[in-house]
Amino acid sequence: MIFNPTPLDGAYTIDLEKRGDDRGFFARFFCETEFREAGLETDFVQVNNSLTAKAGTLRGLHYQLPPAAEVKVVRCIRGALWDVILDLRAGSPTFGKWFGAALSAENRTMMYVPRGFAHGFVTLTDDTEALYLVSAFYAPDAERGVRYNDPAHGIEWPIAPVEISDKDRNWPDLDAAFHGFETMRGA
């Protein structure tokens, strides 16, 4: 596996290191040893699968409060999406900054999302399917989000989202989300 640092501290895109011949290729999606050697999370408790029917559907930006804060490894296995992460970690040199990358079934790139980051995506094609490794169980009481179009973080979406759930449309702005994160972190 090839770990590519992003401009955000502790976040990576991951490309497969393919071994192949005229029959095709073999590559690791996850290797505990390689993740550990790169200083990344190795303890994943769930593998989640999402299917999004329409291009232009926005999901996110979501995160979970401690102690349910989670690491995610996201891969698109059908179609294409624009994956975005937003650093919400107090004291981080990249706090409030975002990074986005195209993940597709074709490029097989994955996004490593550290704890303390909000995560979301907009689908670029119909019938987009994503697979997630997550390090913590889903905790509805710990789930929070940040509004996708808050000018404070200025995420540049490659296409305008056309399908957005009421929940995702109504998440608070970055300042309110960060205050909630810090309040719970100290508890």
Describe this structure in words.
The chain has 187 residues and is mainly β. It has one domain (44-185): Jelly Rolls (Sandwich), CATH 2.60.120. It has three helices and 14 strands. The strands form three sheets. Strands 1-2-10-7-12-5 form a six-stranded antiparallel sheet, with no helix packed on it. The record marks 138 as: Participates in a stacking interaction with the thymidine ring of dTDP-4-oxo-6-deoxyglucose.
Give a nutshell description of this structure.
The chain has 187 residues and is mostly beta strands.
The Rg value, from CA coordinates, equals 16 Å
SS-based class: mainly beta
What's the CATH class, please? Mainly Beta
Tell me the β content: 35-45%
The CATH H-level homologous superfamily: Jelly Rolls
CATH topology: Jelly Rolls
Helix-strand topology string: EEEEHEEEEEEEEEEHH
Can you tell me the overall shape?
Answer: globular
Let me know the number of strands. 14
CATH architecture, please? Sandwich
Q: Which runs of at least 5 residues are low in confidence (pLDDT < 50)? A: 183-187
Q: What composes the largest sheet? A: 6 strands, antiparallel
Query: Terminal Cα separation, in Å?
Result: 38 Å
Domain count: the total is 1
Percent of residues in helices:
10-25%
User: Which strand order spans the largest sheet, edge to edge or round the barrel?
Assistant: 1-2-10-7-12-5
What is the count of helical runs?
3
Average pLDDT taken over every residue: 92
Active site: 62, 132
Function: Catalyzes the epimerization of the C3' and C5'positions of dTDP-6-deoxy-D-xylo-4-hexulose, forming dTDP-6-deoxy-L-lyxo-4-hexulose.
Catalytic activity: dTDP-4-dehydro-6-deoxy-alpha-D-glucose = dTDP-4-dehydro-beta-L-rhamnose
InterPro entries: RmlC-like (IPR000888), RmlC-like_jellyroll (IPR014710), RmlC_Cupin_sf (IPR011051)
